[in-house]
Structure formats: structure tokens, C-alpha cells
Amino acid sequence: MAIEHRSGLLPYLFSAVSEDANKPAPLVLFLHGARDHGNDLNVLLKWGLPRFVNESNSLPYFFLAPQLPEGQTWVERESDVIALLDNFIASRPIDPSRVIISGFSLGTAGAWHIAASHPGRFAGLVAVSGRVPQTLETSQLDVLKEIPIQIFQGAKDEKLSIESTQQIVDTLRGVGGTVDFTVLPEGDHFIADEVYTDLKLQQWLVSQSRRASVAV
């Protein structure tokens, strides 16, 4: 795992594909939760998807995880996340039709917002322990109907209700969206380790490709 700070961009972690450096590969863009704000990228490596990637010898996708300064949200830094993504795609052999965006908690709100604002950019969305941000009205969710979505939530999560998440799932399915909603019966809010290490999800991340009907 590499750590980079570049002038004008959010600092970020990234991991490259080691199998074939010249063959275009998928990219997973990860947005962290509130407790990982700051100026030390190493805190992202303590758990969840960044730790899984860091501890894996070889993965079939590029990985990118920017970090927010204290007090900021992903919704506020939307344009900077997209600029970082563009920079990353332009400088590495990444297949732009196979970019997955994922978030945990605060990062999930950012993932929903950014995917809805740029639906043609993503082949899939993974939402873990997070809600749709208030800036995104339920009626606007239909722009995500062409993006396969995976939602994960702990049944014992005191920060979120299963009912509110189910309403989002029903809305998306009602407009023709493809949504899988997984509830972890014993899970609380902090289910990221269990979710991201699941083999089925890891396979899903690399099996998605942006649908031809979605304009970039």
C-alpha cells in the first residue's frame, strides 16, 4: 500500500494491481467514515477495506482511498474526489468502465451523493452502515437505477434503522434498480471488517462493468 500527498489533491492511499501492470483493471474507490478524518493516512489502515487491501498479497483491482481533513464531509469535497479519480485513471492502466465506489458510515453518504451526481462514472456502489444524505432527495434516486448496488447494515446498529434503509431499497427497486440488501443479524455499526473480507463481495467488486446504456 502506498501513501501519497499531492498539492491540490486530497491525500490518499492506493494499491496497484500486481498481476499484469499493462492490462486495464478495475478500480475500487473507498470513502472512509467520520472517525478516520485527519492528516494521518495510517489510521485508515487499522480496519475495514483499507486494512484488507493492505494485508492482501495480490488483488485484481486498483484501490484508492482519499482522506478528509477534520470537520469536512465527502459531499463538500465531491469535486475533489472526482478530480482525484480522473487523475488516477489518467495515470494508471485502469478500466474506466469498471470503477466501483464504496463508503462506510459518513463515507456511505458521500458515495450515494457522488454516484448520484456522476452516475455514468460508476459500475457499482457498495454502501456499508450509512444512510442516504439529506442533500439527496428520495425522488432523485432513480438516476442510480442503472448502477448495481450492495447495501450492508448491522441489525443492532443504533445509528440506523432497518426500516429507513428498506425504504431506500424499495424506492430503487421500484424504478428498476438492482439492489442487494444484506442485514448482519449480530452486527452493530462497525461491520466493515466482516463485510469487506467476504469472498462473495470481493468477487462482486471485479465482476461489475458499467452498463452500455449509461452515458459517461
UniProtKB/TrEMBL annotation:
Domain annotation Phospholipase/carboxylesterase/thioesterase: ranges: 80-195
UniProt superkingdom: Bacteria
A Pfam family this chain is assigned to: Abhydrolase_2
GO MF entry, a single one: hydrolase activity
Keywords, comma-separated and alphabetical: Signal
SUPFAM superfamilies: alpha/beta-Hydrolases (SSF53474)
Protein name: Phospholipase/carboxylesterase
Naturally occurring in which organism (per UniProt): Anabaenopsis circularis NIES-21
Lineage of the organism: Bacteria, Bacillati, Cyanobacteriota, Cyanophyceae, Nostocales
